[in-house]
Hints:
Layout (H helix, E strand, L loop, with lengths): L14 H22 L3 E10 L5 E12 L3 E3 L1 H10 L3 H21 L5 E5 L2 H6 L2 H12 L6 E6 H6 L1 H13 L3 E7 L6 H6 L4 E4 L1 H5 L11 H12 L3 E4 L5 H9 L4 E2 L10 H15 L6
Parallel strand pairs: 2-4, 4-5, 5-6, 6-7, 7-8, 8-9
Antiparallel strand pairs: 1-2, 1-9, 2-3
This protein binds ligand C2E and magnesium ion (3 copies).
Protein name: Diguanylate cyclase/phosphodiesterase with PAS/PAC sensor(S)
Amino acid sequence: AAKAKGRNQHLVFTPALRTTLQDRWQITSRLRDAAALDQLVVHWQPVVHLATGDVRGCEALLRWQHPQRGLVGPEDFIPIAEEDGLIVPVTRWLLETTLTQAVTWAEAGLDLVVAVNVSAVHLSTGTLVDDVLGAVARTGVPPRRLVLELTETALARDSDRAAEQFAALRSQGVRLAIDDFGSGYSSLSSVASLPADVLKVDRTLVAGPLPARSATPDAVLAAVTALGRALDMRVLAEGIETPEQLARVRAVGCEYGQGHHLAPPLPADRFAALLAEGRRQTGHQRLP
Ligand code: C2E
Ligand code: MG
Ligand code: MG
Ligand code: MG
């Protein structure tokens, strides 16, 4: 409401806002306990190589199993964890959890690359490189098996610093992905200057043509895909929800895909069961 009244207006401390802030404060203090109380859980979404249908990897997506509210999605608590710095220990826990899970899956014969989302706040603390390499060393997972995802918005905040840390991680073999590309204010030159391995095309570009430009429905999707390929990146389409969207992303040359039409994020046991069923049916590491 304050924003709607104009930029120069003071923030009006309405009862609704007060409630929101109190609510958020409670979420934060309870989130502190959550990490200790094992209320954080990870769901895993398959990453599919579109030409073969093979599952090549998965993305770790954080959820909070809240005693009263049920399963809370990351969009409802990550911004708060970022504000008070809790995102750093949470991400350390997540890296350890993800890499430990990767070891378990490797022992079960699954060949997977695991992706973890990293916050811009973590980049600015300066501990990211040590946190990542520490977890890699402790778990013994080959660094090539780990992809760190950062949104283009996070990268744009301090791109020199990001590039520095990326270079340090990459020299150790860790791979990097630019997440949600095409959803924010993309700077083509900063994308070109970042040593990233994967370009994740935002689901808004996958979702469909803008009505006003129906003569060239896939122009932007095709251009972004071509950009990624020209920069020698693997291009991954996010949020594939329908067979039509799958056909579109294939047609423009996206190499990898993720989305509910392929498979939703799943708890670890269901993820493994799905791949076991896929292997039983196809003889390959595929979805059933
Ligand atoms: P993201 O990294 O772009 O993750 C993809 C999001 O799209 C996930 O939402 C996933 O559940 C959702 N998704 C997957 N397939 C589909 C689909 O077909 N259609 C639609 N509409 N959505 C789909 P989720 O799990 O709610 O996560 C939202 C965002 O929260 C993530 O976006 C990521 O930026 C952030 N996030 C999640 N886990 C973490 C984490 O551990 N650390 C940090 N810093 N951020 C995280
Ligand atoms: Mg991501
Ligand atoms: Mg994304
Ligand atoms: Mg996102």
